[in-house]
Input
Amino acid sequence: MTRPDTMTALEKSRPEEGLWRVQAPVPEIGPDEVLIRINATGICGTDIHIWNWDDWAAATVPVPLITGHEFAGEIVEIGRNVTGLSVGQRCSGEGHVVGTDSRQSRSGRFHLDPGTRGIGVNVQGAFAEYLRLPAFNVVPLPDDIPDEIGAILDPLGNAVHTALSFDLLGEDVLITGAGPIGIMAAAVARHAGARHVVITDINPGRLELAQHVCPAVRTVDVTREDLRGVIDELGMKQGFDVGLEMSGSQQALDQMVDSLIMGGKIALLGIPPGKSPVDWSRIVFKAITIKGVYGREMFETWYKMIAMLQNGLDVGRVITHRMPAERFRDGFAAMKSGAAGKVVLSWC
Ligand code: ZN
Output
């Protein structure tokens, strides 16, 4: 390609609230990397933290930094050591850049590498016309997966990783938190063969979106309805077999522990704000298994989610806002309102 010198990007230019549209140099790639022309990006909750410049962001994100880590695009340049990829290949990719020296990486559990760095968080990100990425992180997109779905595979991957933490076939599943990841997890749980899938929230708009994306899910506004009644209504003898905690809310976790069967299982993806009290004795006496979930398994989660998208998993309706990248301020405003599902910015 004729490589431009500069590109448009969304940058955290100063250590304060906001993002700025800047001209930045097009990244030079190393021998094991590729250059991707970005077609579409998703705005993540992480990006909202970075926009707001909260304590986490201030302690984590170097300035200046191009943000963004949810993307789909096309390979336009390939490093000299790279094999198996070609210019013109449509792709998404894993935003966690990992090393190969740790015990975890050397045993193939790359998502547990303690040296992980995140694109758009620790290193230059994807809210830009071009992204430099290790070839290892590239995930080719089949023709039947459009760019806007490619741009939300990162959060769908969180949903798939969490939902597939435990066997769901024939199980009754409770999901607390109807944000985009919780909603997608509900769709995945149904797809994976769960019997009843119940999703809770305190925001009626989010529950409406959950019902729209996944009509087979039973939504519960916990400010108006008690989970015990729902357990009886659905004919479960004791309660839910598996819980997927997506909200970070202490009350939600308490309700989940309450409504799980003896020997139930919980996967935790939601992040509580600071330390939060947990009634451990109830967890012990109920013999509950708890698993913390981080990121996506490289690359088993990616494999499974693409396969599920190809055999009927439909999460497209979770995208509620689409707009050109120059309208990013509207996109962030929609996200911050709490009323949006996924917001996708197009870059071409
Ligand atoms: Zn994300």
Observations:
- Residues 44, 46, 69-70, 154-155 surround zinc ion (CB under 6 Å).
- DSSP finds twelve helices and 18 strands in the chain.
